Amino acid sequence: MKHTITVLVENEFGVLPRVAGLFSGRGFNIESLSVAPTLDTTISRMTIVTSGDDQVLEQITKQLNKLVDVIKVIDFTDQAFVEREMAMIKVSTEATTRAEVLRIVDIFRGKVVDVTPRSFSVEVTGAPDKIDAMIELLRPLGIKELVRSGPIVLGRGSKGWRSAD
């Protein structure tokens, strides 16, 4: 089962390896990891996507909560949330394919961020399924390079992470 969790941590040296170590120590692969400071620059937000059994994830969540630098752990698996990801894709272009690439980028509300005589670099944001669909349409045209941010999430509704549960 896929799990998306957010871990709010003190923005200090060594926190990332300790958090990642809990996953590897239990045999869980981290499929995606995104880390950035919050509005409070002393706190970072980690968004982790992993797959596995509910019992092991429950153990990891309990262990994460025991780490000194961890402020809060939120498991979005059974909650309503908004999920977004960004991808940058470099696509081969020839005179015959340029218009098709531009149409695909437009359909997915992407943006061309760099142009050379033989390629377009495009940026697209949205749900991971949207990114996947765009990649599949561009693949036959010749993707030269691809980088994805990994999903980030926010819970739906008006409560923030500082709110009482």
TrEMBL record:
Function: Catalyzes the conversion of 2 pyruvate molecules into acetolactate in the first common step of the biosynthetic pathway of the branched-amino acids such as leucine, isoleucine, and valine.
Lineage start: Bacteria, Pseudomonadati, Thermodesulfobacteriota, Desulfuromonadia, Desulfuromonadales
Protein's recorded name: Acetolactate synthase small subunit
Coiled-coil zones: none
Keywords, sorted A to Z: Amino-acid biosynthesis, Branched-chain amino acid biosynthesis, Transferase
E.C. numbers: 2.2.1.6
One matching Pfam family: ALS_ss_C
Matching NCBIfam families: acolac_sm (TIGR00119), PRK11895.1 (NF008864)
The organism of origin for this protein: Desulfuromonas thiophila
InterPro entries found in the cross-reference section: Acetalactate_synth_ssu (IPR004789), Acetolactate_synth/TF_NikR_C (IPR027271), Acetolactate_synth_ssu_C (IPR019455), ACT-like_dom_sf (IPR045865), ACT_dom (IPR002912), AHAS_ACT (IPR039557), AHAS_small-like_ACT (IPR054480)
UniProt catalytic activity: 2 pyruvate + H(+) = (2S)-2-acetolactate + CO2
Oligomer and partners: Dimer of large and small chains.
Functional pathway: Amino-acid biosynthesis; L-isoleucine biosynthesis; L-isoleucine from 2-oxobutanoate: step 1/4; Amino-acid biosynthesis; L-valine biosynthesis; L-valine from pyruvate: step 1/4
Family: Belongs to the acetolactate synthase small subunit family.
UniProt-listed PANTHER family: ACETOLACTATE SYNTHASE SMALL SUBUNIT (PTHR30239), ACETOLACTATE SYNTHASE SMALL SUBUNIT 1, CHLOROPLASTIC (PTHR30239:SF0)
Molecular function GO labels: acetolactate synthase activity; acetolactate synthase regulator activity
Domain ACT: 4-78
One GO-annotated biological process of the protein: L-valine biosynthetic process
CDD domains tied to this protein: ACT_AHAS (cd04878)
